[in-house]
Write a structure and sequence with these properties.
There is one protein chain. The protein is α/β, with parallel strands linked by helices. The chain contains 18 helices and 19 strands. The strands form 3 sheets. It has a 9-stranded mixed beta sheet with strand order 11-10-7-14-15-16-17-18-19. Strands 1-4-3-2-5-6 form a 6-stranded parallel beta sheet, with helices on both faces. It has a 4-stranded mixed beta sheet with strand order 9-8-12-13. Strand 2, helix 2 and strand 3 (about 50-55) form a beta-alpha-beta unit. Helix 8 (about 175-185) packs antiparallel against helix 18. It is globular and about 80 Å long.
C-alpha cells in the first residue's frame, strides 16, 4: 500500500488513528539527501509517537538557492516511501508546514535540535508553525538527536562551489558575515534615498508551439497564460525597500501609467514623486515564451525614446535642486529612454550628492546610452559589454582593459563591471577586486543586473560590510533572481540569508 496521501485523504486517516488512541507526529522538510542523521531522527520520534508523517516541500517552494532541490519531488517521495520508520507522506505546496498542520491536526510537530533556539530561524517560519500546532491542540517538540547538515554535505561532496569561489571565501570571515547580516535583518537602514528611473512593465506570454502555419510560412502557437511584473526602476525600488526605511521614487507619470506603477510597487510606504507629462508613455516589454522549454521565442518593446517634453526634463532638474538636501543618497537607473536628460546629468554633477548610477544599453538603444555621459558619481555599475562600448574596445582581455582605462574608471569612487556567470570586477581608487559568480546556471537573467546593483547599493549604504562581502552577497541575490522566471516574487532579506548560509557552510 502506498504511503503517499493527499492532504484530504491523510486528514481522514489521522482522525481515525487519533480516535483509536494513536499518537501522530509531523515532520516537515525538503529531504533532498537522506543520511544517518535522518534515521536517528526518525528513531527518536518513534519513542513518543505511534505514527510518523512526513510533509515534503514541493520543488517550487524549496528555498535553498539555485540548484536545489538536487532531486525532484517524485524522486524524493520514492526514497522516503522506502523507509519503514515513516508511515505517511504528503506533499506541501507551501514554504512552511503551517497549512499541513492545520489540515491534518497531528499530536506533535517535530523539528531538529537546531530549532531549540527559535530566534536562530532567520525565516521566522517556526513561529507560524508553532502557532499552528497549538491552534489544533498539538505540541511542538525539538529532538535531541544531532543532525548532519544536508546542505553542508551537498557543498562538500559536489561541485556546487567552484574552486575560484572556494578561494574567494577563504578571505571572508563566515561567522562574522552571518552575524552582520542578521543585524541588518532585525532593523532597516535608517536612511532616506531617492530612486530616479523609467518604470518598465515586463509582460510574459506563455505559449504552446503548434508548428508551422498551414497558410503562411510562420510559427503558430497557442496562448496559455500571461503574467505581468514591475521591471526596471520598479523592481529596483521594491528590492531597496527591503533594506532601507525611507524611499521616494521619482518617475514620469500620466494618469494611465501612474495606476500601473502603483500596482507593482510592493510597499505602500514607498512615496511616488511624479513628473507629470500627458504625452509620456510607460515602457512595456512583451516576451513570448514556450511554456514547456521556457525558451524565449520573441520580444516586442513598446517604448518611445522621447518620453518627455523638454519642459518635463527641466522639472526633474528643478526637483533635484529644491529637494536633494532631504536625501542621503540618490540612485539613478538610466535605461536610455530619455528620462535622464543632459540637463539632469549636469544638475547631478553640480549638486555633488552621493550618487549610485546604473546606465544601461539594451536592444532598443544599443550603443546609444553609454556611461560616458556621466563624469562623476559615488558608484557606477554596468555589464562588460556596456563597458567595452564605453571605451571602444571589443577584444582586449577584461583585466587588461581595466588597467588601460584607469583614468576613465577613476572618475568614479567605485566602478563595477558585471560579467554574468564569469563574476564581476569592483575597481576603487586603491584596489581591483575580482569576485567569482556563485551560481553558473540561469533560467531567466532579465533584471539580474538590476538586482545585483540594488543589493550592492543597500549594503554599501549600511556601512557594515567590506567590498568582498558586498560583492559576494550581490552575486548570490542576482543568482537567486536569475533562477526563476520574471519578477513576480521579490526575495526578502530572510530568503537571501538562507542562500548566503548555504554558500558559507
Amino acid at each position: 500500500m502506498s504511503k503517499i496521501f493527499s492532504i484530504k485523504e491523510l486528514s481522514k486517516e489521522i482522525t481515525k488513528l487519533k480516535k483509536n488512541g494513536n499518537k501522530t507526529a509531523l515532520l516537515h522538510g525538503v529531504f533532498d539527501i537522506l543520511h544517518v542523521g535522518h534515521i536517528n531522527y526518525f528513531e527518536e520520534i518513534k519513542k513518543f509517537s505511534d505514527k510518523i508523517i512526513v510533509s515534503v516541500t514541493s520543488d517550487k517552494f524549496v528555498n535553498k538557492g539555485p540548484g536545489r532541490p538536487m532531486f525532484n519531488i517524485n524522486e524524493r517521495l520514492k526514497i522516503l516511501s522506502k523507509i519503514d520508520l515513516i508511515d505517511f507522506i504528503v506533499i506541501s505546496n507551501s514554504e512552511t508546514a503551517e497549512k499541513v498542520i492545520k489540515d491534518i491536526r497531528p499530536n506533535f510537530y517535530v523539528k531538529g535540535k537546531d530549532y531549540k533556539i527559535k530566534k536562530n530561524d532567520i525565516t521566522k517560519n517556526i513561529y507560524k508553525e508553532i502557532k499552528a500546532i497549538k491552534s489544533v491542540g498539538g505540541k511542538f517538540i525539538t529532538t535531541q538527536t544531532p543532525m548532519h547538515s544536508s546542505t553542508k554535505i551537498i557543498n562538500e561532496e559536489t561541485n556546487f562551489l567552484s574552486e575560484k569561489l572556494k578561494d574567494y571565501l577563504k578571505n571572508v570571515a563566515k561567522e562574522n558575515l552571518k552575524k552582520k547580516y542578521l543585524q541588518l535583518v532585525k532593523q532597516k537602514i535608517n536612511k532616506k534615498i531617492l530612486v530616479i528611473g523609467e518604470p518598465i512593465i515586463d509582460v510574459y506570454n506563455y505559449v504552446q508551439i503548434q508548428g508551422k502555419s498551414s497558410k503562411n510560412n510562420i510559427l503558430s502557437s497557442k496562448h496559455i497564460s500571461t503574467s505581468e511584473f514591475g521591471g526596471g526602476s520598479i523592481l529596483v525600488t521594491n528590492i531597496l525597500k527591503e533594506f532601507i526605511s525611507k524611499i521616494d521614487f521619482l518617475t514620469f507619470s500620466n494618469n494611465h501609467n501612474e495606476t500601473y506603477v502603483k500596482k507593482f510597487l510592493n510597499d505602500k510606504k514607498i512615496k511616488l514623486k511624479k513628473i507629470k507629462d500627458r504625452k509620456c508613455k510607460y515602457i512595456i516589454k512583451k516576451r513570448f515564451i514556450d511554456k514547456y522549454s521556457k525558451n524565449r521565442l520573441y520580444q516586442i518593446n513598446y517604448n518611445d525614446d522621447f518620453l518627455l517634453t523638454n519642459k518635463s526634463g527641466s522639472k526633474i532638474s528643478n526637483f533635484l535642486e529644491k529637494n536633494s538636501k532631504f536625501y542621503d543618497f540618490i540612485i539613478i537607473f538610466d535605461f536610455g529612454h530619455n528620462l535622464i536628460t543632459n540637463d539632469v546629468v549636469k544638475t547631478l554633477k553640480k549638486l555633488n550628492k552621493k550618487t549610485f548610477i546604473n546606465c544601461q544599453s539594451n536592444s532598443s538603444n544599443f550603443g546609444f546610452n553609454l556611461i560616458n555621459k556621466y563624469s562623476k558619481a559615488n558608484t557606477i555599475s554596468m555589464d562588460e559589454q556596456e563597458f567595452r562600448l564605453s571605451v571602444q574596445d571589443k577584444n582586449s582581455p577584461i583585466k587588461q582593459l581595466i588597467k588601460k582605462n584607469k583614468k576613465f574608471i577613476r572618475k568614479f569612487k567605485n566602478f563595477i563591471i558585471t560579467m554574468g556567470k564569469y563574476g564581476s570586477y569592483h575597481v576603487s581608487k586603491n584596489s581591483s577586486l575580482y569576485c567569482p559568480t556563485v551560481y553558473s546556471s540561469f533560467e531567466d537573467t532579465t533584471g539580474s543586473g538590476d538586482v545585483f546593483f540594488s543589493i550592492y547599493i543597500a549594503l554599501k549604504i549600511s556601512n557594515k560590510f567590506s567590498d568582498e562581502e558586498i560583492c559576494l552577497i550581490s552575486h548570490i541575490a542576482a543568482g537567486l533572481h536569475a533562477n526563476k522566471v520574471g519578477n513576480d516574487k521579490i526575495f526578502d532579506l530572510r530568503s537571501l540569508y538562507k542562500s548566503l548560509e548555504l554558500v558559507l557552510k
